# Entry
Amino acid sequence: MRLSKPLNWRDFGSDFHRRAVAPATAKARVWRDWVRDNDPVYAAVRHPGRPEKWALSLVLTLTLAVALFLALFDWNMLRGPIGRWASAKYDREIALTGDLDVHLFSWTPSAVVRGLKIGGPDWARQEDTANVDEIRASVRLRKLLAGQIEMPLLSFTRPKVVLIATRDGRKSWQLNPNKPDRGEGMKLPVIQQLVITDGQLSFDEQRRRMTLRAAVDAREGANGDAGFLLEGRGAVNGSPLTLKIQGGPFINIRRNRPYHFQADVSGAGSSLSARGAITRPFDLGRFDATLTMQGRDLSDLYLLTGVTLPNTPPYRLSGALNRNERVWTFRDFDGRVGASDLSGEVRVDAAQRLRVDAELRSRRLDIDDLAAVLGARTRTNAAGTDTEAPVVVGGKLLPDAKLQTERLRTMDGTLTYRATSVKANEFDVRAVDLGADLKDGVLKLDPISFNFNRGEMNGAARIDATKDTPYNAVDLRLAGYPLESIVPARNGSVPLSGRALGRARLEGPGASIHDFAAASKGSLSLVVPNGRMRAAFAELLGINASAGLLKLLSGDQSESRIRCAVADFGVNNGTATARTFVIDTDVVLAQGKGSIDLGAETLNLRIDGESKKPRLLRLWAPITVSGPLTAPKVGVDVGEVVGQGGLAGLLGAVVAPVTALFAFVDPGLAEDADCGRLIANAR
# Structure
């Protein structure tokens, strides 16, 4: 193989100089000669004449005069113009009431402002937003000329700041209220020494009835007193509030070195503790922390954070808190709510309109904890941190806690919740799946899903909270639910078996589940396509003393077939009235009527039974179901029994004693119900 000839670097360099460098140098000489011969500015600089000398002298004189003027200028003369300009620009009184000293001729120019006053806006002129006895500040000139601000010193002496936020969202500290608040954190210049002496902060947030009076200090040095400290007390919605924020000294802070802090807040039955760091110091819109929070009810956190959360039993949660400008994320958290575990992620976008998106899950849910979420009242210990399951109080079946509609109108968001398993419970719920979407004050719940050991309930709901009293609509379907779970076994005997189908379609106003039910309209239906019933109870549907009572008293465990059972109620103004109420067995056809008062939570039902077989002894007396939903009473209409006995006495006196038995003879002429039609109508 033939090798190429090696490169001769000397020849290459000579050739490059001849072809490129020499022509460029020649052109540069030509341009230089032209400038020297033709440019008047160049000629004036090399050979200045009298005009040029006068101009140079004038420039030097003006420069010296400006420097001397700035060195001897009384900066206090600018206090009035600065105050008037700022007052006009920000539509509030701003004034410099003390001396103003400026030192420009230094590598670190500095200024001292004494007596700075920033008044409140026109709707809060009774309180100045800020009053500072003295401000000292300096900047590095070289950094400033490079377009950066670095402050070797920033010092405040006895600053007093008053912050007011009204119920309609106005904020006294916003100098430009027309500029939208995007929820982004404050960005400060690099400060090497921050000193705050005897600072006072007053905060009044009227929407949540939150007030705070705090002391603020920042000291530099290496001793234990050095660092930043904000500590205060106040009240939130009538309960005590405490706040403490601590950070290290600024003396060694760098942009690329995290600034560590810790914050603790307690109030409204809740406490929050954060330990973390500002990832890029002086950019308060970014930080990471570990957050632990606990309290008696997650909904109370609205008073501290402004985020609307559901009612819950006592809770304790811990996870990673991150802020990235306007977005706050509480992720990888874990803990307990009531007797249930809870984990997941919550994302809060603190833009002009708050948005919260949450993905929650439980490995094992205690179904009793959902009572609090749905608005039931709970009992806790004095500290409000008891983790026992909630107890519904007040004797109500339907929770009566009011939905706070004004909170729903302040934010948008979504929620998904999944409980993969559920602790043993009387309803035999095995899994729960919930979803929610909140937008412009309208809350949509979809899905609402409960899986049972056998069967399931699915549905959706809508709550329009755009008005003080929300308008609600709910549509729930029950499929395949076992009757054994409705009427449990006693003494080892199951009185009922089969699968139930049901549907609830209701709508109406109401701020609680109880109020909604009390004013609702729509329909309620429950269908049993087929099943089994203990024969004694089947006979008693017709009050068959000869068969039913004897079987019941003798402990007979034989069963009768349920051909169908249909209960269909029309609901109007909170009263459910029976449109169809039929229980058809192979021995008795029972038909009922009556109503259920959803507001009073009471029953008033009457069931008449007809035997399908001839019976010698039968009391024609309807069964009554009355009383509260939580403890209904089942009885017999005694008046019907007395009337039947009177008919027997009349027959005995007129005809013969033996004919008196005819009053208690049932010929058994009842026919089977049209189950297909009844079920179709009820659905």
Residues 495 and 508 are 37 Å apart (CA to CA). Confidence is low (pLDDT under 50) at residues 380-394, 544-555, 641-671. The radius of gyration is 42 Å.
